[in-house]
Design brief:
Layout lengths: L1 E3 L11 H5 L11 E3 L11 H15 L4 E6 L1 H12 L4 E7 L5
Parallel strand pairs: 1-2, 1-3, 3-4
Helix pairs in contact: 2-3
């Protein structure tokens, strides 16, 4: 399970209590929480971020995954699922508007 976390002002790992929020999934999944890459250029969009996540998932996992998007990550996961259906086994968006 990959979690697209909401955006933060700094690109750094989330505090332990943020990651522990996914503890209920640990019996069924290995949970990976991903954040945005550092140094985003002006004009970088949520769709661009979804494309970057797709490249990472192809490289790290090689195929379809279950993915959850939280907050802004939920908008990103919607782009991800629409544009990269070959990488999606199942997806969910939590606390996110439609892009």
């Amino acid at each position: 399970m990959v979690v697209f976390q909401g955006l933060t002002f700094e690109n750094k790992p989330q505090p332990g209590f943020m990651v522990m929020g996914y503890g209920s999934l640990k019996d069924d999944y290995t949970v990976y929480v991903v954040l945005r890459k550092p140094g985003l250029p002006h004009g970088y969009t949520l769709k661009d971020m979804a494309d970057d996540y797709a490249a990472m998932i192809r490289e790290e996992f090689g195929g379809p995954i279950d993915v959850i998007g939280v907050s802004t990550g939920g908008s990103i996961v919607q782009h991800f699922a629409a544009d990269h259906p070959d990488l999606v086994a199942d997806w969910s968006s939590i606390r996110a508007p439609t892009p």
